[in-house]
């Protein structure tokens, strides 16, 4: 009875609400003519997203484009790549170590995040860990009082004035020194304890790098990745976790710095495994049907090895630019390793190469020849004046949240198109840049680019940024058209650029 009363009074409230709303609505519609000026001011809402979407930390990560890896440890002093774990801490003595120099080199290269090997496979720790004495504490460096992680964090904080540098940590799961390795419970406890030290002592950590590398005769054991990842998110909620399988950033499947020409930020995590390096092609290209947003990071060293070796020298500018086009230019991040030497400094040759690299990138991309051109498109969401989705948006400074959107109806030509026209003079360029509004999902599956009606490039994915360096070299024309032939829902283009790469010219 009581229940019935409650229900009927709810019904009454609902009825009265509905009636008053209907009344209000009818007055509104009756007095508001269809094309009133006030109505023109009401903006068209953005189109619905296409899932999965990036998290806010992943979006910030993507915009960094270039990040730096620092491989440093006992291997630096023993001329090796994979230490045995039997190295004496006495070999570690970087008498001139200056983390400020590392940070300056990073800033000069336009890098905003540096990732340090806090512990590599040899198990030697670059910070004072309570849980082992196999660390800088047992080394002669600074009488055992030095802390490389602490020095980097301190220098990065000071480097803020130079543009801001964040810190990331690589803590190798495979540990060839510690006796607990191979005993699943004990080693996982040890590893997690070290992770907690690193994530609580040094302020904000923006990326944690986990790899599955392990020698073929290493003791058999499993890692509790689920616990480790949960601990990272608990202690550093804005950190992105990298591994062969994400969850936030995935490995690109090779160490050359090359992503696939098709490269989706989406993938199915259930098809991946952290410890098993198979599925390399899948990692390289991603998956248009993937249910997880896990963009790829391209790790490569400026030298042949990851650690510094006297006999090696840095790659030349042409090689670095090729890596840039094949990583950043294929919707990925470039994680470039620049190893400090036995003095504890990044060699001057490498610092100089980083400066050249930055100058080249700035020279190529600071001028957009499409700027000032007129832009037309096959259709426009909300009309040209009302929606905020006009084709001109592809030429503004925002490469994420202002974009061209077609109206979503069947296109007259059977495909979407957007065209840049100079009006008079011929545009001369050898690089085309296209960016999607990935905040609403990655969508474009197939497109072609035409200059005055002639096809000069085509592709299968765009994502955050796609660069086409034209095989033909410099081309000229008054109009450039992108035809979008296949897309997951309507395509959204946030930026478009025509650029001139003088280095390509010379290197060809
Ligand atoms: C791999 C390691 O085995 C290499 O030594 C290096 O650290 C590279 C970045 O990751 O998994």
Q: In a few lines, what is going on in this structure?
A:
This is alpha-L-fucosidase. The chain is an alpha/beta fold.
Protein model, in words:
- With 508 residues, this protein is an alpha/beta fold.
- It has twelve helices and 20 strands.
- The protein has helices at 2-31, 37-40, 56-64, 74-78, 99-108, 148-158, 184-201, 225-235, 280-285, 317-327, 348-365, 502-507, and strands spanning 66-70, 113-119, 166-171, 207-209, 240-243, 249-251, 266-267, 292-293, 296-301, 333-337, 374-377, 416-421, 427-429, 431-436, 444-451, 454-459, 466-469, 475-477, 479-487, 493-499.
- Helix 6 links the parallel strand 2 (113-119) and strand 3 (166-171).
- Helix 7 (184-201) packs parallel to helix 8.
- The model is unreliable at 1-37 (pLDDT under 50).
- Beta-L-fucopyranose is lined by residues 81, 211, 213, 299, 306.
- Residues 81, 211, 213, 299, 306 line the site of beta-L-fucopyranose.
- Its main location: secreted.
- Residues 1-20 form the signal peptide.
């Amino acid at each position: 009875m009581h229940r019935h009363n409650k229900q009927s009074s709810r019904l009454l409230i609902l009825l009265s609400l509905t009636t008053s709303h209907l009344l209000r609505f009818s007055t509104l519609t009756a007095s508001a003519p269809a094309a009133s000026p006030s109505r023109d001011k009401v903006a068209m809402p953005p189109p619905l997203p296409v899932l999965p979407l990036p998290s806010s930390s992943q979006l910030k990560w993507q915009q960094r484009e270039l990040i730096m890896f620092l491989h440093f440890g006992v291997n630096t002093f023993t001329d090796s790549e994979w230490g045995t774990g039997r190295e004496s801490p006495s070999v570690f003595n970087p008498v001139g170590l200056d983390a400020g120099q590392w940070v300056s080199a990073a800033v000069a290269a336009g890098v905003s995040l540096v990732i340090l090997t806090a512990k590599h496979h040899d198990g030697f720790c670059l910070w004072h860990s309570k849980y082992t004495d196999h660390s800088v504490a047992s080394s002669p460096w600074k009488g055992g009082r030095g802390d490389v992680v602490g020095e980097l964090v301190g220098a990065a904080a000071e480097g803020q004035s130079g543009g801001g540098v964040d810190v990331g940590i690589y803590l190798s799961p495979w540990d060839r020194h510690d006796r607990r390795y191979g005993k699943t419970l004990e080693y996982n406890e040890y590893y997690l304890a070290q992770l907690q030290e690193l994530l609580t002592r040094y302020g904000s950590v923006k990326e944690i790098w986990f790899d599955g590398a392990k020698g073929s005769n290493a003791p058999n054991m499993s890692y509790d990745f689920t616990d480790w990842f949960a601990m990272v998110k608990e202690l550093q909620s804005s950190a992105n976790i990298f591994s062969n399988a994400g969850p936030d950033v995935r490995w690109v499947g090779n160490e050359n710095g090359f992503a696939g020409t098709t490269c989706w930020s989406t993938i199915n995590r259930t098809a991946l495994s952290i410890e098993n390096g198979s599925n390399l092609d899948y990692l390289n290209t991603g998956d248009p049907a993937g249910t997880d947003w896990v963009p790829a990071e391209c790790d490569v060293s400026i030298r042949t090895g990851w650690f510094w070796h006297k006999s090696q020298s840095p790659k030349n500018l042409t090689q670095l630019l090729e890596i840039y086009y094949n990583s950043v230019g294929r919707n990925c991040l470039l994680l470039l390793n620049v190893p400090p030497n036995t003095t504890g400094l990044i060699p001057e040759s490498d610092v100089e190469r980083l400066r050249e690299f930055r100058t080249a990138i700035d020279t190529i991309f600071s001028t957009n020849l499409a700027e000032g051109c007129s832009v037309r498109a096959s259709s426009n969401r909300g009309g040209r004046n009302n929606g905020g989705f006009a084709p001109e948006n592809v030429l503004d400074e925002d490469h994420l949240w202002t974009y061209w959107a077609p109206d979503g109806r069947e296109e007259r030509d059977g495909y979407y198109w957007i065209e840049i026209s100079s009006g008079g003079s011929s545009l001369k360029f050898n690089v085309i840049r296209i960016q999607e509004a990935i905040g609403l999902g990655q969508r474009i599956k197939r497109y072609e680019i035409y200059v005055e009606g002639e096809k000069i490039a085509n592709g299968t994915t765009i994502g955050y940024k796609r660069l086409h360096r034209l095989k033909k070299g410099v081309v000229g024309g008054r109009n450039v058209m992108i035809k979008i032939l296949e897309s997951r829902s309507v395509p959204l283009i946030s930026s478009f650029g025509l650029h001139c790469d003088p280095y390509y010219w010379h290197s060809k």
